[in-house]
Specification:
The protein has 188 residues and is of the alpha+beta class. Helix content is 34%, strand content 22%. Helix 1 runs antiparallel to helix 2. Pfam families: DUF1707, FHA.
């Protein structure tokens, strides 16, 4: 016969998914300014040390005040906001000056403020030797040359090299252009 001591049951171990859900709530609370950095760190430690679901609920009790209706509303507003940003970017791309892609040659096109560059851009946010554009393997490659104010393609910063295409939005410092091969594209 065995004693009742051997049949003690322990609460089930918390799953990683449960912890991840609570950590996501904490991250959102910190991002929205509802938690200070110190409070976020303290609560993160509590989540990792929690042994039961009740402990997890207590950690986020003051953050989960949204009803399903308000989550839907905020989700809709977020999607509308994202759409307006995409619309503004599309409008901006059409209004940008064109930067014609050069004829492919043996040397890359250097871009910057220096008069020796193939494309000279006289703007205080453009570095002396800012970037270079070259044709490699049938595709155009844009490379940032360690510029101070950065090179961007379609709003994303280029740290080394990136493939660019006709119609891409490129930026050198605060000067923005739309790449164009010079060929007329049919309007739809």
């Amino acid at each position: 016969m065995t004693s009742s001591f051997e049949f003690q049951t322990y609460p089930a171990r918390l799953s990683d998914a449960e912890r991840d859900r609570v950590l996501a709530v904490l991250r959102e609370g910190a991002a929205m300014g509802r938690l200070s950095h110190d409070t976020f760190l303290r609560r993160t430690d509590l989540v990792l040390a929690a042994r039961g679901i009740d402990e997890l609920k207590a950690i986020t009790a003051d953050l989960e005040t949204e009803s399903p209706w308000s989550r839907k509303l905020f989700g809709t507003v977020s999607r509308i906001s994202a759409f307006s940003i995409r619309l503004r970017r599309a409008w901006q791309v059409e209004r940008l000056p064109k930067l014609l892609l050069p004829q492919p040659g043996p040397y890359p096109l250097r871009i910057g403020r220096d008069p020796m560059n193939g494309l000279r851009l006289s703007h205080e946010t453009v570095s002396r030797v800012h970037a270079e554009l070259s044709m490699q393997g049938g595709v155009w490659i844009l490379r940032d040359l360690g510029s101070t104010n950065g090179t961007t393609v379609n709003g994303r910063r280029v740290t080394e090299t990136v493939v660019v295409r006709d119609g891409d939005m490129v930026g050198f410092g605060r000067m923005d252009f739309r790449l164009s091969s010079g060929e007329q594209q049919p309007r739809s």
